[in-house]
Write a structure and sequence with these properties.
By secondary structure, the chain is an alpha/beta fold. It is 29% helix and 21% strand. It is built from six helices and seven strands. A seven-stranded mixed sheet has the order 3-2-1-4-5-7-6, sandwiched between helices.
Length: 206
């Protein structure tokens, strides 16, 4: 609503570097991001979209606030730019009975160190919004390459500029165009209060 409109009011350039930024923050989430109702919604959406698929690739899981979406015993590969939250992430995974394997990138433009279609599903919850415009297509295309389907939860304002005036690490990407360019279709789309949730799958060829 009004908050998101303020966030995406005006486009400007930024010196934001994701690797440096996320390795220097003591907590990856702000107050709004750790709101119980929002986390519960995100967790429910992920659980429904992922169902019983295994293993799962989690891009940028941070401290694991939505790991509750997965049943005990599930195999989760956590791919992140930051090593700062590894201990908290592993502890959270252990508490939930998950088999969690962390992997790391040194740049948003790194190829994912994973084989084509090696996961039935990948999840990017509140992650792509923090990847700059010049590298977000690469990140999403790598998810599509590695995963049979991709579950995305992100901020979104239709027609808004790419980068906010107030928050230099939050971006408004055109997921609809990105999906089309990648030859994918968006399923289970939910749009509400400046947020978008969807599952990306390759389009069926005639």
């Amino acid at each position: 609503g009004k908050v998101m409109k303020r966030l995406f009011r005006k486009q400007r350039t930024t010196s934001y570097d994701p690797f440096t930024y996320w390795n220097s923050r003591s907590n990856p989430n702000n107050t709004e991001g750790t709101d119980a109702a929002r986390v519960a919604f995100d967790t429910g959406y992920i659980a429904s979209a992922v169902s019983d698929l295994d293993p799962v690739l989690e891009l940028g899981p941070g401290v694991g606030r939505t790991l509750g979406a997965y049943a005990r015993g599930r195999n989760i590969t956590a791919l992140d730019l930051s090593r700062a939250y590894t201990d908290q992430l592993l502890l959270r995974g252990s508490e939930l009975g998950l088999k969690l394997t962390p992997l790391y990138l040194s740049s948003p433009m790194d190829p994912f160190p994973l084989a084509d279609k090696s996961f039935p599903v990948g999840v990017a919850s509140q992650v792509l919004m923090h990847i700059p415009p010049e590298s977000v297509t690469h990140s999403l295309s790598e998810l599509v390459r590695v995963c049979e389907r991709v579950v995305v939860i992100s901020t979104y304002q239709h027609g808004a500029p790419t980068i906010s005036d107030a928050v230099t690490h939050v971006f408004n990407h055109d997921y609809f165009s990105m999906a089309t360019d990648l030859g994918c279709a968006m399923h289970e789309v939910i749009m509400n209060e400046g947020r978008i949730c969807f599952t990306l799958r390759p389009r069926k060829r005639d």
